[in-house]
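User: Hey, my collaborator sent me this sequence without any context and asked if I could get a structure. I don't really work with proteins. Can you help?
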Amino acid sequence: MAEFYTRFIRETMDEAGQVTQWSYQYEEDFNYGYDVIDPLGDLDPHRLAMLWRNHRGEEKRLTFSDLKTLSNQAANLLRSHGLQKGDVVMTALRTHWSYWIVALAAHKLGLLLAPVYYRLTAEDFRYRMEKAKVRCVVTCREGPAAENIWAAAEQAQVPLRFALGPGEDGFLDLLAALPQQPDTLDRVPTLATDPLLLYFTSGTTGLPKGVLHDHAFPLANYWGARYMQDVHKGSRHFATGDTGWEVVSGTKFYGQWLLQGTLLVYDYDRFPPEQVLAFLAEAKATSIMAQPSVYRLLTQVGMDRYDLSSITNYAVGGEKLLPDLAQTVTQQTGHVLYEGYAQSEAGLIASASQVMGRKEGSVGKILPKYHVEILREDGTFAPPGEQGEIILVADGGRHPQGLMMGYLDDEEANRRLWDGDYFHTGDLATRDADGFLYYLGRSDGIIKTKGYRVSPVEIEEALSRHPAVAECLATGEPDPDLGQKVKVYVTLAPGYAPSPALREALMAFHNEACAGFKKIRDLAFVPALAHNANGKLIRGQFRDPNA
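Assistant: No problem. I've predicted the 3D structure and written it out in structure-token form, which is a compact way to encode the shape of the chain:
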């Protein structure tokens, strides 16, 4: 009997197991909720879809039948409050199991889902709510999330507000309301080309941009699940990452369930390496996907102190992987790390894996889902070994499936990055004759810290509000724990002189008002900052050529 995923993905392999031909097969009204989850709820109802646990020891087990039932109930709940196709629902749910239920419900109703990080500030939430015209928000009660969400929703006039659990703050209790709803749902008409997801990602100019993906996007996540993370029917797959970030779509959602794998989800505030290792051992995980900073914490505890013999695939991404960490993981587990290269706008583009192979220093082999080239400055394609920008090519003028629909209400950015023929990633690389990518860095200075993308402009705009700052330049510098740390170079306004006290005051001024992953970790005073002929800051002026 054919595997379930072959309903949508057709592949031809050579003798070495490499994909030689492939295609997507789906109807024009494809909807992941109705066409993947609901059939699995009927065909494989008792298979465990998620084993969820949090740092307090609470646990939730969800089968594919549960996913179908609960998502129908959540859809009926949202619809009972007046939400209809095209409305925007924002979630800030950390990694609580309810995120997946709300997401599937939104997909079934044709709502646009906008996941965000739960520890954003009230101002961050407000901007995103107003930009996306949010009609409903669902939040957890961890940390400052509910308080900041409520303040932002008041300013942005978001009418419908849910939280997890009861409270005296005006939120409706999502978990109490779900069981009261009918568990059947008539199909709402949607199209594969309709917008499905809205992720906010940092850019190098201006405020965060909204990245739009369509209803066919979930199928494109098959490639990472199968070829990087080695997920299959019977897998027990663990991945890190807050549900507010696009990485979750590729590492613990669409592709993994399409392949009938089980998700192991651990919900936490500050990553607890001992508890996670114990969870992986107890649950008999078969694969893991995490950032280098997570692996460093795990190796500091000692991965070899736990029985991880069931894990046969270790994948890594989100930050620069340093050789010493890769060696330590191999020493403690007996397995190599399979690295990948991805973007919020395009998902996974290249990966190393047991099937695709791996090469030292490479971020992986280009996946068959995209036609990837290296573009030289003269507009021609670079041969193997020559540096250029990674681009995605539209063969026959077709928009590559898995690539974003575009940026929300930003036609200028859309024209700059996508001209109908090429999608410009802004990343520099070389590739070899076998199709392996060797990543060289961002051409525009994006900072990747703790697996998050941070715009240097956001940092600079915030710090420049201090009267002592004449001008500043934010950069990402290598850090063994964070991947990159945020460092800022500052020129001072007249009347101010460099001092340790002023350095601490400037860092506190910024860090006390920002989300944790945006915190400045280092600050240096400089007499001047270099600019190009157009007056723009030269972002690479402090870059270590040996880094």
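In plain terms: The chain has a mean pLDDT of 92. You can pass these tokens on to your collaborator as they are.
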